[in-house]
Amino acid sequence: MKMIRSLIAGVGAYLPERVVTNHELEQRVDTSDQWIIERSGIRQRHIADDRQLTSDLAIAAARKALAAAGLSGDDLDLIVLATATPDNTFPSTATRVQAALGMTRGAAFDLQAVCSGFIYALSVADNFIKTGQARCALVIGAETFSRILDWTDRTTCVLFGDGAGAVVLRAEEGRGEVSDRGILSTHIHSDGRYYDLLKVDGGPSSGKQVGHLRMEGREVFRHAVVNLAEVVGEVLSTNGLSAQDIDWVVPHQANKRIIDGTARKLRLSSERVVVTVERHANTSAASVPLALAEAVGDGRIKPGQLVVLEAMGGGFTWGAALVRM
Ligand code: ACO
User: How far apart are CA 33 and CA 38, in angstroms?
Assistant: First the structure.
């Protein structure tokens, strides 16, 4: 039987130049560097220039991922761009990225699952490849959350940042057996009963323009640790693995305490968890590919290693993927 698997051919990331430290935020709202570090682990975040749109960040990350794969826009037949902060209501930000990369065939579309967006997009692209509908896909997580923050609300504005990350997936085909590398499984979930716990209070259909991020932080925290531990457990049981078999976990970078709590629940050593939250803050859909690109780039994650990617976000949505690099 013919089998197709999605191989990760290249990863890339982009962070805006401007860095905003916790000390700078102390000038804007009633907060402190110490409070932010103790409660979230965050020390700084990157914030996009006024003229930089989500598509600009996405294009920069995509170019790096394509270069790492030794491919160009011409080679792509699918772009799935995860974002909750598109340039415009429509058309999709993905079509702007498509044009910038010189890709004129195939399809490009946006996907919205907030902080879980990259895992959702990876799952969708992987299924397109496995069913033979795409051969070479670009999966991007890109956000400018700075545009939807209420900069007077200390309970949310200190937690987020801007950025983009991307991976190129290439189909590898074989008869019976395929390589043991690539995406081995993806797992996505949502539960809309929690819609109101993390949301933006505006948008095209609800009347108000755009709106701002609102969050019941404690409730989100509680669900995050439970859901993330569960979905990583699902990855392990589906693939007949134990936590000890995993070389690296690349978690969504929302809060250092959520990352540590999840690792503890799974009895995973913190040395095998990639953490960037202290420098990037929560970049929503961009956080997992940004962390992945960093750990691949500095040589921590090596070819052949088993990596779990996981994320949770508004909706609630959550998910995970198992990849052999
Ligand atoms: N600076 C100083 N004090 C603050 C700040 C701030 N920036 N923000 C809140 N406080 C105050 C609160 O007003 C409260 O004061 P009070 O006791 O006088 O009322 C006190 O600090 C404690 O507030 P809590 O909300 O109970 O603090 P908590 O320990 O829960 O930490 C946090 C808050 C960091 C938001 C935490 O709940 C969290 O990380 N939740 C997860 C949310 C998250 O990461 N969401 C991202 C999107 S979803 C996802 O990606 C998983």
Answer: 9
